[in-house]
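=== Given protein ===
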Amino acid sequence: MSSMKGKSLWYNHPSMNDALFPIPKDLFATLLEAQSEADVRQTILAELPLGRLEYLQIDYLHENLLIEFKFDDDMSSREGKRAEVLAQACYYCYRLRIEEGRVPHYIALISKNEVVLYKREDIEPVYKNEELFDKGTPSSPDADVVAKLSRRIRMKKLCHNRLP
């Protein structure tokens, strides 16, 4: 791991595993300069190994990482927007489980202000509950999915520019 120090936020060659990864020193400062969701996406993708873009409408998918990009959504509390964005990612996890039989180990929600990281096992009870996904879509998640995700779910917040 020491040979990978400083290389990327998520990458740990030869494949990602259960560890958090070194963050490039200027990544968060660059994210704060974003003027659109496309800028956020481009900033992050420049740091990642080649993955699948827009597969099953997922913003970015790598063997062990799914990312949902947003521009300036306030994901500072688990209720509200963060739960809605996580619900969107859970719809994708549900689809991946059905289509491919596996879900990446990490799910990341990234905006210009926050990088929020979840481990698969922490949201697994939600995306494996098939009854929850009978209604709603990723872009318009069902209220029950959002409500389940508003409850305490472990995550790792890597960045938030609103903190003192």
About this structure: The mean pLDDT is 79.
